[in-house]
From TrEMBL:
InterPro entries per UniProt: Ald_Oxase/Xan_DH_a/b, Ald_Oxase/Xan_DH_a/b_sf, Ald_Oxase/xanthine_DH-like, AldOxase/xan_DH_MoCoBD1, AldOxase/xan_DH_MoCoBD2, AldOxase/xan_DH_Mopterin-bd_sf
Protein name: Xanthine dehydrogenase family protein molybdopterin-binding subunit
Chain segments carrying region Disordered: 1-24
Endpoints of the signal sequence: none
Origin superkingdom: Bacteria
Residue intervals of the Aldehyde oxidase/xanthine dehydrogenase a/b hammerhead domain: 27-139
Sorted UniProt keywords: Molybdenum, Oxidoreductase
One of the Pfam families matching this protein, by short name: MoCoBD_1
Length: 737
């Protein structure tokens, strides 16, 4: 279809342009959802349940209602009844199916038990503290730790993520192949609950005009929010307009609609004034999902040459009492390496938490951790170099898609160039051989892979008589620089300088665009934009009775007035496509471990990636850096503690929920290889948003093993675990699979 030098005119690795929304953001001019202050704005604050399981026996809201500035207090006794909307799931579905304030059931700690609406935030917060609730706790206490109930693990009906991969897979006879394999490993890996903690916290403003409501929301999906608000309120979708000019980070937590969004509209209708609900950091830990913890059993069978003969990857996670959410944790093991016998599966255990949700590389982050650590353990078992082991299991075909060729695969080159830039060849094979004063030093590597997800997307491109152009699609700018990259796609397709393009997005009045998630936006929406630009040029050519002339259309347009083209890009589904699209990468890192304190420092990083066409080298590079920084956090820091007796998330703040900060991050050498993908879509772009975290935590854990000779299989690798050995899962019994 296309490649370098075709009519599209974009290079394989585009120029490193600064983001167009940068100045507005750094000067404070950018208006985020909760910056909207329609006249008469009132503020909503939720009161939270103190128990994690049971019932509300009685609510006394009299003091709250009498407090100064209070306009309304909604509880399950008086809140309007919402329509039933069904299971949570992928984009366009609610983040959780259970809506609070509808009945007396309490399913998780922090569940909303009252919504106070008041003149000011302070008045609403104060009154929310005055709501008195009497509970009837479940005598059995809450279920908090899913590992305590593995006997009740169930197979979820589906994996509710983009592409909905099958829950289970089997190729060959994995059990027999494992039993016959000369080398066998049986390992347990664990990852904890994590939270997204986006810099811009969750918040919504809703304002009614007659029977129509406008919702400003911090979201990854304006059309999804529109659909959910309309369903819960039993409105026509056209009665709901959703706007999102900017979203300050999301990472999956804003990919679906959570209860506060609908309740902003409910409250605004109740008090007859616009209402703003802003969850804040603490409430964001219970109000907008989290990453499910995982227990992963990896069984690996191989020949003495390191070639895989059997791979069994079984993942268990937790979900809420009311939704069967599962990450796609084991899916990575289906396709990354050549292997004749593979079984993968997912199970969930219901506990008293809010429904977990997608979080950056939802499943791939946890699953690639287990798979890539297991590969390292296999290499160590065989005395093989970990990179050599990957090369021996390299595959040119996607065995999970019946042996289809990849749309492109630059992984071999990622290994080669990454290893060279990192200096992998100088790494001693044996662990625990390098030291620098009190620091043990080691190097680890891992493969990164992320599927090339795409969804239908529409766009409109209008050529204007003054030589400028306007593009419109409802996609969201979630902080990635995606809106800049998409404008660059239009500029390339139109042969127009970037500063002559206006881009309208983040509004349900614009052509439909999918959720900005799954690393799919540039590929999906960019393809729609290219098609729309070409449609506009074709229309102009027809009007002018001549051939399209993308370099000199301004004069032609002047004769006709604005000329529009609209297009929808429909990616082929998995069965119909002829090629398997995936982005690939190779992660290399060096760690230093102080054995007296248990401290692990990441000292060096090289990541080489092949992700198809890179539209904007600068913003795409930032995505790699962000993903790798998350990998460092995942490996060493991030963990939400769920109290086993109370069922509460205990560290609902950034003082105790630790994310990687500058002092934790070395200079990261991350780069893209030219990766011509002529099969994936009309612009040849795959995905860059999530691949950076894939394999990153494994590379660190593998480097820690290389530095110290010790395997810590439970994340995060904290000083406590380094010192005390807890989490060294060799001694754990396998799951009851
Ligand atoms: Mo992402 S977790 O697909 O927003």
């Amino acid at each position: 279809m296309i490649g370098p030098g075709d009519g599209f005119g974009a290079p394989l690795i585009g120029p490193p342009l600064p983001r167009r929304d940068g100045p507005a953001k750094v000067t404070g001019a950018a208006r985020y959802a909760t910056d909207e202050m329609p006249p008469g704005l009132a503020h909503g604050v939720f009161a939270e349940s103190a128990i994690a399981a049971g019932r509300i026996r009685a609510v006394d809201a009299a003091a709250a209602r009498a407090a100064p500035g209070v306009l309304a207090v909604l509880t399950h006794e008086n809140a309007p009844r919402l329509a039933q909307v069904g299971q949570q799931g992928q984009a366009g579905r609610p983040g959780q199916s259970h809506m609070p304030l509808q009945d007396a059931h309490i399913f998780h700690a922090g569940q909303y038990v009252a919504l106070v609406v008041a003149e000011t935030i302070e008045a609403a917060e104060h009154a929310a503290d005055l709501v008195r609730v009497e509970y009837e706790p479940d005598p059995a206490g809450p279920r908090a730790r899913f590992e305590a109930h593995l006997d009740e693990a169930e197979v979820p009906p589906r994996i509710p993520l983009i592409g909905t991969p099958p829950v289970e897979s089997c190729r060959g006879d994995p059990e027999a192949a494992l039993a016959a394999a000369p080398v066998r490993l049986d390992l347990i890996y664990r990852t904890p609950v994590e939270h997204h903690v986006p810099m811009e916290q969750h918040g919504t403003v809703a304002a009614w005009d007659g029977d129509r409501v406008t919702v400003w929301d911090s979201t990854q999906h304006v059309y999804g929010v529109r659909s959910i608000v309309a369903k819960f309120l039993a409105l026509e979708e056209e009665q709901v307009r959703v706007l999102s000019a900017f979203t300050g980070g999301a990472f999956g937590s804003k990919g679906s609609s959570w209860p506060h969004i609908t309740f902003a509209a409910v409250a605004a209708r109740e008090v007859g004034r616009p209402v703003r609900i802003w969850l804040g950091r603490r409430q964001g830990f219970v109000g907008a999902g989290h990453r499910s913890p995982t227990l992963q059993r990896m069984r690996v069978g191989a020949g003495r040459d390191g070639r895989l003969q059997a791979l069994l990857h079984e993942a268990v996670g937790h979900s809420s009492p009311y939704d069967a959410f599962s990450d796609a944790t084991a899916v990575v093991s289906r396709m990354l390496y050549a292997c004749p016998a593979i079984r993968t599966g997912h199970r969930i255990v219901r506990v008293n938490v809010n429904t977990p949700t997608a979080m950056r590389a939802p499943g791939e982050a946890q699953g690639s951790y287990a798979l890539e650590c297991a590969m390292d353990e296999l290499a160590a078992e065989l005395g093989l170099d970990p990179l050599e082991l990957r090369l021996r299991n390299y595959t040119e075909r996607d065995e999970d898609e019946g042996g289809k060729p990849y749309s492109s695969k630059a992984l071999r080159e990622c290994y080669r160039q990454g290893a060279e830039r990192f200096g992998w060849a100088r790494r001693p094979l044996a662990p625990r051989t390098q030291r620098d004063g009190r620091w043990r030093v080691g190097q680890g590597m891992a493969t990164a892979v992320y599927p090339g997800k795409q969804s239908p997307a529409s766009a409109r491109v209008t050529l204007l008589p003054d030589g400028r152009a306007e593009m419109a699609t409802a996609t969201q700018e979630i902080g990635t620089g995606g809106s800049t990259a998409l404008a660059m796609v239009a500029a390339a397709a139109l042969g127009l300088p970037l500063d002559r393009l206006r881009f309208a997005y983040g509004d349900t009045r614009l052509p439909r665009a999918p959720v900005s998630a799954g690393s799919q936006s540039t590929a999906s929406v960019g393809s729609a934009i290219r098609l729309a630009a070409e449609a506009a040029l074709r229309r102009l050519a027809a009007l002018s009775g001549g051939a399209p002339n993308p370099t000199a259309w301004a004069e032609q347009v002047a004769n006709h007035g604005p000329v529009s083209g609209e297009a929808t890009y429909e990616p082929p589904d998995k069965d119909a496509r002829t090629h398997a699209p995936h982005a690939f990468g190779a992660q290399f890192c060096e760690v230093r471990v102080a054995e007296d304190s248990g401290e692990v420092r990441v000292a060096r990083w090289t990541g080489a990636f092949g992700c198809g066409r890179i539209v904007n080298a600068r913003t795409a590079h930032s995505q790699l850096l962000g993903g790798i920084v998350w990998g460092i956090g995942m490996a060493l820091l991030e963990e939400t503690h769920l109290d086993a007796r109370l069922g509460r998330f205990m560290n609902r703040n950034l003082a105790e929920y630790l994310v990687a900060v500058n002092a934790d991050v070395p200079v990261i050498d991350a780069f893209f290889l030219p990766d011509a993908d002529e099969a994936v879509n009309p612009i040849g772009a795959k995905n860059v948003g999530e691949i950076g975290i894939c394999g990153a935590a494994a590379a660190i854990a593998n480097a820690v093993f290389h530095a110290t000779g010790r395997r810590i299989r439970d994340l995060p690798i904290t000083p406590e675990r380094m010192l005390l050995g807890t989490g060294d899962a060799a001694a754990h019994a396998p799951s009851s699979a």
